[in-house]
Amino acid sequence: xxxLIAVLxxxxxxxxxxxxxxxxxxxxDGQEYELDDKGFLITDDDSACYILEDEExxxxxxxxxxxxxxxxxxxxxxxxxxxxxxxxxxIAEVYASEKEPLTSVGTxxxxxxxxxxxxxxxxxxxxxxxxVFAVSDDMYGLRLQKxxxxxxxxxxxxxxxxxxxxxxxxxxxxxxxxxxxxxMKTHVNQEVTAEEELAxxxxxxxxxxxxxxxxxxISEKVLxxxxxxxxxxxxxxxxxxxxHYIIICVKGRPTDTYAGVHLDWLAQKMLDMGxxxxxxxxxxxxxxxxxxxxxLNVEEKNARSVGSLISFGTDDSIPAxxxxxxxxxxxxx
Length: 333
Hints:
By secondary structure, this protein is mostly beta strands. The protein has 6 helices and 22 strands.
């Protein structure tokens, strides 16, 4: 594959999530390439891609002619009680397309269990599927293993689970559906059925909750200071418009170092980024964010095993796990 690896001192550097990176970028050989206003690479070469990895500066980017990913890390200080804690979070802005849509990847299905049932290290899933960018999702595999209710879960147009609760427990099993036209819509628990969502063209339905934003308005539930009032690691996904998504991941462990955030903070941040629909996904120790097969928010050895990830883009240069690595206990159970 022809690769356009950006030097860190490129002609146009990331200066924030908005506006999207556009204009001229320069690879390590000094050759210039053009990006459009969504960050797509302007080329007819489907194998060409632009990559930026700046761990120290907290910026990552990937572009081809059908997918644009921009990730920025923010390092702030937040007062928790009488002590200051680090508030570290990542905001990812993704412009996908019909050619390069949002996908779901997970551990393989078996005769007895669906995809995503077996839990492994998130890096294993990201690398085995050559994911450019992937984040933890609703952790439905764990609910299938250990709980009586699983929520409304659809992956790749296949119904995986429908048994839900009354929405009074945690998670409350609200959902966000991704449709074939790249649009997303949130629903409160039991508002819709799996069959209704499939009839509307749902490809994936992610189930955790609560809904953060619906029809451009923050949910009153998450604005209630008594509703799950804890600072936690968080991950949320939202839609600005079809094929234009925002993902936020917040670090919160160990608690004596990192602050975490409340749900109202997460909802407001998603709204500030332009989302009209957004859902809180499984947080806590489950939060994982990977780029080019590497975990950004936690060391691989400390990552919680998961069954599936939300993913954007594939790159064959990302190596799958070797057999020796898979035999390591960190690969998962």
